[in-house]
Design brief:
By secondary structure, the chain is mainly beta. Helix content is 12%, strand content 48%. The chain contains 2 helices and 15 strands. A hairpin with a 5-residue loop joins strand 10 and strand 11. The longest helix has 21 residues.
């Protein structure tokens, strides 16, 4: 009888954990707020390490993790939006480069898109979303005064967990300006289509 009660308690606890994992637990905040935390969003689990952010730059004040926000995209509730009000360069030689690191579990495809990127003169803006693997799954976008890619094809990968790096870079050049409003990312689990590893949405 005692064994039966123990088994019943374990089953109830397991069911409770399963229910918790199935529900979204994401709360908008900064990259600093998310350090050391795990949350669920749209059926995918995200785990941010304590050292989830790095910055380098020239001609600009350092941008801490507390200056970079992550929230649900108002125009696409299945995606997360990364943004910072200080991603704007207008002086010669200025540059910004940041990396955001985390791990995803429960996904097999990723998509990304740059929002409202503007470059003039010889300025350049680039972003990439890289899922570690062999080979890595990468989606990359860029913007110059002449051309750019806002929405790269979806990138597929095997079941997780996988380490992920978001890289964002802005260069003003010697006679340009670079502004990036935000960067969108989406992780999901879908049935993989036949054919090439990458397909358009």
């Amino acid at each position: 009888m005692k064994d039966f009660k123990v088994l019943a308690i374990l089953l109830l606890a397991s069911a409770a954990v399963g229910t918790t994992c199935a529900q979204d637990s994401f709360q908008a905040g900064t990259v600093a707020d998310l350090a050391g935390k795990t949350f669920a969003f749209e059926g995918v689990n995200y785990t941010f390490p304590q050292d989830d952010y790095s910055f380098s730059g020239s001609g600009v004040p350092p941008l801490p993790a507390s200056a970079v926000a992550i929230r649900v995209d108002p125009s696409d509730p299945k995606s997360l939006l990364i943004s910072c009000p200080f991603w704007a360069l207008n002086q010669p030689g200025q540059s910004i480069s940041i990396d955001i690191r985390f791990q995803v579990t429960g996904a097999n495809v990723q998509e990304s898109e740059q929002y409202h990127a503007s470059a003039t003169g010889d300025a350049q803006i680039s972003q990439s979303l890289t899922v570690a693997g062999n080979p890595p799954a990468v989606s990359a976008s860029f913007r110059t005064a002449a051309n750019g890619v806002n929405l790269p094809p979806a990138a597929w990968f095997s079941e997780g967990p996988h380490d992920v790096v978001v890289h964002i870079s802005l260069l003003a050049g010697q006679k340009g300006t670079a502004v990036l409003r935000s960067y969108r990312m989406r992780f999901a689990h879908r049935e993989r289509p036949a054919g090439p590893a990458e397909t358009k949405r």
